[in-house]
């Protein structure tokens, strides 16, 4: 057998790396481990590298065979001298072995020899990457002269290198040839043997720095010099000597028998803290071709690691590590092999006094889990003489691992997580980091396939269960229906007949009969009635008049009135007058009760009513069983038909909403096209896309260089791109750069800068960054989890617009694929709510000096949690109005977060609203973030700045982002003292309306539904209905002008009065729906109503929800003359119903209403994303507006809209159709809020 001894000589032995300081911060022991899953910063590679307290001293890593620190310096100097003297000898040995191998290769076949040489040259090339010089076999050459001894590296360059450990041989097998490696101090020996019938083979995996020392060769100043020499080895019982001279010490070692080697292995296992895997650095590429991950049996690294785990002595290893926080056996874990983690609890500040220790574990930067992510650690038998307290656990490292990530915890929320950076150690023998990253798309595709399969299976199982439940309900309803009948069937049929005769003998006449006779259940039946034979005999029915049949089944169940018609298929005698009516005969019918009437004259069988028999044949029991099955089938068929109709309506609704969402995204893209666009416009995974960027209207205007810096998947993808220097435009304004999205990218993220990194000017879209969705990705975007903490929610706890926003925004974001939940107080008035009759128990806990119950229910499609403290804070009939509102709501805010903490929930966003829940922001960061509720970020929305200025300012400071309900209102209040200090985090996002609640096509409060194409007819019908209800002259061709508003100073009450007078002055019809909380204001409007009310004006001083729908549908014009308006809903609801808004330019009114005469350009931009309305032929204006606060300013808009009605009906009706087609739903605001949520998560 031939052997190579590759000896590594340097000008000094590596020294242990310096320790890192343990820098705890307030609450560090409480931080949850996942924080650092996105923190790729500095991480501790060995728990040994920690300083704990001032008296602990330096913790050393990488010590070999338990060497004592006292002799390290003397041994280091001795090794340096030996290295200098052996450089020449090693070079001569290299040349000698090369000659021997070349001679041996001459006996090989040409093809085999070329393959062998190519494999070896690859190994030589790989060695150079690590500053190692390996002997070349390509040609024979004389030994080179000994090189000069390398100078001693500077102290600071070598102190970061760990001392190399020793190891017995590690075996590899590959393609039928055997090879082995031995590491002893600074020498590494390769040995190979030709198996009979096969040629020698050479292992060609990369040589890593860790194979020679515990440190990194990249830090060395002097290169290693490697040599090779033949070594004797016994093969197949025969002593084989090699040509050339080898080191006698090595020859002695290699000549040992098996028993002697095993004895020495056992001795080494007792003394040495590390074995071969401990000295293998898991650097850039740590693949082991023979390992299980790549086919074949266990690799030699895995076998060596397992031997070390099986034979190590924990007490011996811990004896020199009393101040270490942790260490592993082997020191460098091996992929696919067991590893033991030792943890010194006494060194851990957070866990020193904990009774339990758990290891939370994952691999490859927390992306790879193997089995359970939690491992319970157990106390060891290692003595506590030095004050240590060692715990341990053992597990198997995944074969794909390249690094191990972990933290220690106590199982109840306290963690030692390396000051938030988590612990990490590298893993040998598995994938390299690049291989892991390159495999991400395949893993994502596989995970997505598994997810979809699981989702489809869950949906199928849920549907199966749903159908089973519905089938059971069908049967229960059928049994209930027949049971009701069977309980009183004999009484029902008593006195019932199939036909009725009056008189006796020859004077008898038929009063009524049925066709068929008897009636058939499940089919229509006819009742024929002779009005000349009964109580109606004296009545002569005028032409067009008829009697009415009032009939009910089984004792007047489901009664109905049916207008009768003259019978045509009956032979009529002179003294007869026959009428007929058709009705359905239910399956469970046993009799019908009826009377016949004509106005106030009744034929009711002298007060006993007529009873029509539906006979039961075959006995009641058989009939009951048969009818039950028929009823079950009927229930099933009815349900299927109802579901079909519902599904059709739902599909249409989803189609409309999807079109709205698609248009909102398209408008958003068009609005940034002058700054940035892509070719192709739709980005696809795996296909190149070119980004075009114009800096003219951005912070980068005038910069000489522009760079594109980006990532994927909301910056969470492990791969990124850039900085890419963009190509300057030869013509036009757009710079460009191209990039190809990975197959597992679903979102493209980027910013622009004038530098390639570091300080410079950046265009990051106001902190939101640029994001483009990617089609065709094998991965899907994980949903956000948003929790709204609010004291209002429509419709169950509505006081103002805040309630509408919480519900509508939540639903809109949920429809985008995210998880939205709401936390509310459980008010006493909820007990009377018909919508809250399915509450379920969720949990309970003690907090804040009281016991708290939490219940839950789905409301408006959203999961709602109700906080119910036993201290009576919310045992009240109203939301607001108590003197302790502030105290109650602060308690609720903390109770809501306590609920999240105690139930282990970790939402992404906490969204709080107005002063009532503003304290969430501060309380979260001061009381919860560092104590277990570590993940959320806070978003705060201001709905009304008139209340709680202090609370609002505090929330603005602590929130990561805060908003108000329209961009214009945000501009108007940006200088407010509560906002100005944090205005950089502030933005306005307009509200939307719930287009399902306000839907003229399916509005139950309207006489008929209508859409944009039938707006004229629909509004005419609504106008007639409103006029009839309010006593107005709806027949006149005059504009109907309405105001739907609270009567407060904010709403412009002096202008509302002016609208009433001006409408009547122009011959219009005025309608006011609203009331004033101020008695003085109410009295003024009472007087105005008394003066103006009549057929041309109506004042309805109350808020009536159904009536408001009718007012919006009936009115041609809706006026909103507010002095200030954060957003406003009236103008958007008006447009939804085809009423033209006339508004004052303020807040949200300015953002949603575009004057027909003056705002064509702004309307085209905001509504359609067009920068040139004339070029694009876009007309998007939708109303009339004014700026002043006096009646004259109002007239400038009101007179114009009235003129449009009178002078150009075609234009006016076209304008009504246009405003109905505009989308003022939550589609666009929801997209803006989602971007805001992601922006907050980065803060």
Automatic annotation (TrEMBL):
Stretches the record annotates as Disordered: 1-94, 133-178, 232-300
Pathway noted in the entry: Glycan biosynthesis; starch biosynthesis
GO annotation, biological process: starch biosynthetic process
Domain Carbohydrate binding module family, residue spans: 336-428, 522-615, 686-775
Compositionally biased intervals (Pro residues): 141-153
A Pfam family recorded for this sequence: Glyco_transf_5
UniProt key word Glycosyltransferase: yes
NADP keyword on record: no
Start-end of Polar residues biased regions: 158-173, 232-244
Reaction(s) the record says it catalyses: [(1->4)-alpha-D-glucosyl](n) + ADP-alpha-D-glucose = [(1->4)-alpha-D-glucosyl](n+1) + ADP + H(+)
InterPro entries (alphabetical): CBM25 (IPR005085), GS/SS (IPR011835), Ig-like_fold (IPR013783), Starch_synth_cat_dom (IPR013534)
Compositionally biased spans, kind Basic and acidic residues: 74-94, 254-270
Compositionally biased tracts (Low complexity): 61-73
Keyword line: Glycosyltransferase, Starch biosynthesis, Transferase
EC id: 2.4.1.21
GO molecular-function term, one example from the UniProt record: alpha-1,4-glucan glucosyltransferase (ADP-glucose donor) activity
Superkingdom to which the source organism belongs: Eukaryota
Family according to the record: Belongs to the glycosyltransferase 1 family. Bacterial/plant glycogen synthase subfamily.
Protein name, entry field: starch synthase
The species this protein was found in: Ostreobium quekettii
Organism taxonomic ancestry: Eukaryota, Viridiplantae, Chlorophyta, core chlorophytes, Ulvophyceae
């Amino acid at each position: 057998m031939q052997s190579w001894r590759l000896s590594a000589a340097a000008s000094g032995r590596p020294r242990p790396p310096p320790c890192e300081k343990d820098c705890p911060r307030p609450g560090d022991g409480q931080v949850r481990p996942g924080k650092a899953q996105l923190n790729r910063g500095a991480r501790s590679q060995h728990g040994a590298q920690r300083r704990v307290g001032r008296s602990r001293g330096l913790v050393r890593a990488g010590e070999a065979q338990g060497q004592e620190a006292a002799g390290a310096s003397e041994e280091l100097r001795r090794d340096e001298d030996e290295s200098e003297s052996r450089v020449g000898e090693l070079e001569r040995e290299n040349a000698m072995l090369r000659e021997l191998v070349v001679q041996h290769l001459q006996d090989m076949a040409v093809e085999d020899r070329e393959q062998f040489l190519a494999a070896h040259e690859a190994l030589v090339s790989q060695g150079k990457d690590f500053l190692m010089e390996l002997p070349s076999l390509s040609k024979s050459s004389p030994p080179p002269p000994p090189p000069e001894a390398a100078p001693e590296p500077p102290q600071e360059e070598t102190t970061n290198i760990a001392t190399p450990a020793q190891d017995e041989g590690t075996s590899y097998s590959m393609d039928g040839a055997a090879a082995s490696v031995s590491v002893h101090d600074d020498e590494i020996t390769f040995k190979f043997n030709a198996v009979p019938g096969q040629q020698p083979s050479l292992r060609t995996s990369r040589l890593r720095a860790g194979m020679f020392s515990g440190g990194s060769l990249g830090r060395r100043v002097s290169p290693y010099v490697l040599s090779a020499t033949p070594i004797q080895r016994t093969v197949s019982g025969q002593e084989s000597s090699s040509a050339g001279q080898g080191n006698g010490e090595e020859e002695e070692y290699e000549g040992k028998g098996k028993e002697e080697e095993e004895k020495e292995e056992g001795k080494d296992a007792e003394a040495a803290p590390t074995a071969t895997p401990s000295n293998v650095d898991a650097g850039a590429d740590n693949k082991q071709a023979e390992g299980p991950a790549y086919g074949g049996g266990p690799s030699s690294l895995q076998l060596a690691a397992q031997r070390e785990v099986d034979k190590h002595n924990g007490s011996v290893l811990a004896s020199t590590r009393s101040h270490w926080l942790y260490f592993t056996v082997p020191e460098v874990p091996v992929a696919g092999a067991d590893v033991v983690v030792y943890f010194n609890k006494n060194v851990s500040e957070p866990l020193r006094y904990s009774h339990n220790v758990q290891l939370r574990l994952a691999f490859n930067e927390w992306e790879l889990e193997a089995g359970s992510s939690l491992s319970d650690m157990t106390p060891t038998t290692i003595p506590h003489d030095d004050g240590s307290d060692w715990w341990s656990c053992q597990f198997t490292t995944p074969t794909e691992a390249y690094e191990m990530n972990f933290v220690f915890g106590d199982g109840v929320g306290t963690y030692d997580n390396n000051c938030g950076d988590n612990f990490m150690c590298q893993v040998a023998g598995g994938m390299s980091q690049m291989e892991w990253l390159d495999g991400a798309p395949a893993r994502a595709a596989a995970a997505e396939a598994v997810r979809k399969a699981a989702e489809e299976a869950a949906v199928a199982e849920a549907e199966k269960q749903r159908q089973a439940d519905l089938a059971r309900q069908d049967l229960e309803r059928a049994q209930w229906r027949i049971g009701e009948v069977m309980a009183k069937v004999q009484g029902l049929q008593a006195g019932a007949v199939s036909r009725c005769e009056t008189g006796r003998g020859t004077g008898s006449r038929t009063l009524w009969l049925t066709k068929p006779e008897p009636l058939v259940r499940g089919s229509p039946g006819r009742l024929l009635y002779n009005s000349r034979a009964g109580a109606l005999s004296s009545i002569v029915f005028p032409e067009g008049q008829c009697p009415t049949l009032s009939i009910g089944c089984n004792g007047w169940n489901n009664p109905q009135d049916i207008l009768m018609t003259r019978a045509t298929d009956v032979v009529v005698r002179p003294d007869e007058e026959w009428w007929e009516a058709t009705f359905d005969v239910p399956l469970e019918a046993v009799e019908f009760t009826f009377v016949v009437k004509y106005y106030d004259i009744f034929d009711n069988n002298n007060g006993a009513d007529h009873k029509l028999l539906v006979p039961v044949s075959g006995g009641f029991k058989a009939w009951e069983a048969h009818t039950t099955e028929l009823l079950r089938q009927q229930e099933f068929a009815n349900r299927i038909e109802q579901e079909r109709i519902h599904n059709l309506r739902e599909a249409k609704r989803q189609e409309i909403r999807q079109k709205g969402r698609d248009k909102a995204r398209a408008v958003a893209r068009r609005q940034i096209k002058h700054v940035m666009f892509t070719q192709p416009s739709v980005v696809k995974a795996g296909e190149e896309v070119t980004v075009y960027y114009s800096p003219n209207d951005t912070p980068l205007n005038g910069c000489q260089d522009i760079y594109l810096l980006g990532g994927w998947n909301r910056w969470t993808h492990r791969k990124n791109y850039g900085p890419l220097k963009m190509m300057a435009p030869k013509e036009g304004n757009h710079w460009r750069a191209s990039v190809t999205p990975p197959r597992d990218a679903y979102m493209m993220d980027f910013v622009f800068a004038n530098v390639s990194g570091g300080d410079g000017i950046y265009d990051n879209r106001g902190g939101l960054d640029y994001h483009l969705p990617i089609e065709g990705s094998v991965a899907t975007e994980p949903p956000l989890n948003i929790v709204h903490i609010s004291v209002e929610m429509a419709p169950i706890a509505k006081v103002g617009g805040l309630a509408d926003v919480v519900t509508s925004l939540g639903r809109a974001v949920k429809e985008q694929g995210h998880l939205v939940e709401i936390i509310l107080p459980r008010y006493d008035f909820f007990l009377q709510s018909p919508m809250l009759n399915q509450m379920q128990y969720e949990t309970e806990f003690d907090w804040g000096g009281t016991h708290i119950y939490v219940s839950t229910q789905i409301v408006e499609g959203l999961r709602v949690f109700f906080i119910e403290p036993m201290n009576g804070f919310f045992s009240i009939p109203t939301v607001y109005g108590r003197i302790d509102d502030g105290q109650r709501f602060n308690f609720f805010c903390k109770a809501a977060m306590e609920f999240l903490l105690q139930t282990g929930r970790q939402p992404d966003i906490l969204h709080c609203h107005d002063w009532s829940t503003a304290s969430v922001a501060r309380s979260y960061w001061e009381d919860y973030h560092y104590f277990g509720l570590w993940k959320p970020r806070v978003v705060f929305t201001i709905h009304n700045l008139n209340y709680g200025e202090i609370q609002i300012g505090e929330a603005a400071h602590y929130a990561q982002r805060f908003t108000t309900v329209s961009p214009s209102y945000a501009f108007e209040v940006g200088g407010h003292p509560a906002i100005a200090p944090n205005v950089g985090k502030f933005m306005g996002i307009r509200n939307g309306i719930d287009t399902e609640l306000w839907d003229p096509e399916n509005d139950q409060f309207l006489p008929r539904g209508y859409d944009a194409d039938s707006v004229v007819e629909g509004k005419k019908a609504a106008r007639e209905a409103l006029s009839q209800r309010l006593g107005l002259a709806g027949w006149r061709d005059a504009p109907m002008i309405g105001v739907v508003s609270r009567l407060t100073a904010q709403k412009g009450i002096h202008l509302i009065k002016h609208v009433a007078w001006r409408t009547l002055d122009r011959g219009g019809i005025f309608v006011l729906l609203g009331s004033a909380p101020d008695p003085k204001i109410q009295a003024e409007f009472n007087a105005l109503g008394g003066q103006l009310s009549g057929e041309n004006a109506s004042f309805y001083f109350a808020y009536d929800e159904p009536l408001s729908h009718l007012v919006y549908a009936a009115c041609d014009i809706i006026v909103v003359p507010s002095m200030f308006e954060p957003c406003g809903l009236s103008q958007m609801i008006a447009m939804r119903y085809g009423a033209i808004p006339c508004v004052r330019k303020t807040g949200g009114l300015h953002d949603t209403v575009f004057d027909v005469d003056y705002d064509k350009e702004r309307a085209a931009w905001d509504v359609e994303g067009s920068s040139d309305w004339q070029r694009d032929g876009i007309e998007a204006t939708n109303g009339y507006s004014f700026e002043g606060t006096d009646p004259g300013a109002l007239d400038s808009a009101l007179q114009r809209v009235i003129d449009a009605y009178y002078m150009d009906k075609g234009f006016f009706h076209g304008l009504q159709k246009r405003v109905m087609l505009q989308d003022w739903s939550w589609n666009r605001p929801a997209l803006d809020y989602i971007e805001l949520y992601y922006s907050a998560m980065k803060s």
